[in-house]
Amino acid sequence: MKILHVIESLNLHSGGPPMIATRLGHQVRLAAHDTPGAADQIDAALRPIPHFQSVDLILIPRRPSWQELLGRGAAQMRSLVEDAQVVHLHFSWESLILVTGRLCRRMGRPYVVMLNGMLDPWSLAQSPWKKKAAMAAGHARMLRGAAALHLGNRQEQRLIEPLRLGTAQAIIPNGVFVEEIEALPDAGCFHAAHPQLQMRPFILFMSRIHHKKGPDLLLEAFAAIADEFPTMQLVVAGPDGGAVADVHRRAADARLSERVHVVGPIYGQQKLAALVDCRLFCLPSRQEGFSMAITEALGCGTPVVITEGCHFPEVAEAGAGEVVATDSGAVAEALRRMLRDDALRQRMSQAARRLARERYTWPKIAEQTLAVYREALGRGSC
Fold first, then answer.
1. What is the pTM of this model?
2. CA atoms of 299 and 253, how far apart (whole Å)
3. CATH class belonging to 2-175+362-379
4. What is residue 58's predicted lDDT score, i.e. its pLDDT?
5. What is the number of other CB atoms lying within 10 angstroms of the CB of residue 76?
6. DSSP letter at 176?
């Protein structure tokens, strides 16, 4: 099967690479806009991903949106769509995705659209008039013309019901690489690489540092528990999505600058080492489609504190952590409960490993994805 994945950008500020592309076992191409100036960061993110070398990566020169929408410079994209049997679009509001969907319909190629949580009410409420205009200008037609919508979880399915798109839907989560979680770094590696932690315990936040991800809520929660746990540190890891300055300001206002460590993006073994060494992982997002970071934490056996906006109720159902309201007070209480109870964290750690291995490994998820492609090829697109 010839499969084409299309994503607006591989830049970590835009969410990073679609890892499912590496595990499909077929001829897979991945097309994305070139991102001048970000080549080193993108390479650092891609290189540690198992099997990524099996994917044919194609970078498309970036043009102004109006030029793309008018079809200028579309010859390369047209050729890629023509050569594919099925196309997997990673939804964004950018013109590359809209144009590719239009090409698929014209050329009779079935396509699947992965929504990444971008159509839930919280996301649509950000710059709402622009998004309403985009839907009217072609995004709604693209979504309705898809063979299927790829959703990350049950909550995402429920939240898009008011849009009445009428398109078939498939719930397929993200996953973890078995070969990574079966050969984790030794305990202490992250501490050794970051002597500023002074071997002290830490809570880990690992995601794009953006308001949507709730770093402000975590800083407020950490300030609320800091006196009770005087040796506890907070590590904030990830690319700057516009909120790093606010993290530093909040840490300074709370007189916690020496205990809050912003370490930038971490990849591969360094990322796994952080998950192994941390006391627990916390992602207090206001909205998520399906978080890779949470899934990786579970795979490493790391107890998690997440918010309802993460749309990952399986964490609480499996006893792998706590799911709380998107509120700094609720996050603080959950952190307090888990940090006080070593036995509870140990039980959650074991539950996290079971949950990841039973439900969120790439071979299982790849087979679910291929089943959607096969159905799309049988049904075609509108």
1. 0.82
2. 35
3. alpha beta
4. 86
5. 13
6. B
CA distances from 345 to 45, 155, 285, 351 (A): 30, 26, 21, 10
Could you give the residue ranges of the DSSP H alpha helices within 169-281?
Answer: 178-181, 189-193, 215-225, 244-253, 268-277
Going along 241-345, which residue ranges are E strands? 260-264, 280-283, 304-307, 321-324
Whether 2-175+362-379 shares its CATH topology with 178-359 is answered yes
With H, G, I as helix, E, B as strand and everything else as coil, classify residue 295.
Answer: helix
Residue 135 has a CB neighbour count (10 Å cut-off) of 17
**Domain boundary assignment for the chain:** 2-175+362-379, 178-359
Q: How far apart are CA 232 and CA 247, in angstroms?
A: 17
- Homologous superfamily (CATH) for 178-359: Glycogen Phosphorylase B; (3.40.50.2000)
Spans of the chain below 50 pLDDT? 380-382
- Nearest-angstrom CA–CA distance, 161 and 57: 34
Tokens of 312: 């990952």
Query: pLDDT tens digits for 16-72?
Result: 556 666 566 678 888 988 876 666 666 766 766 666 777 888 888 877 665 566 666
SS3 content of the chain, % helix, strand, coil (to 5): 50, 20, 35
Distances (CA, A) of 143 to 29, 65, 167: 22, 19, 7
Cα separation, 147 vs 86, whole angstroms: 10
Q: Are 185 and 276 in contact (CB under 8 A)?
A: yes
Q: What pLDDT does 381 receive?
A: 46
pLDDT for 27 equals 83
CA dist 326 and 287 (Å) reads 9
| Contact indicator for 241, 247 with CB cutoff of 8 Å | no
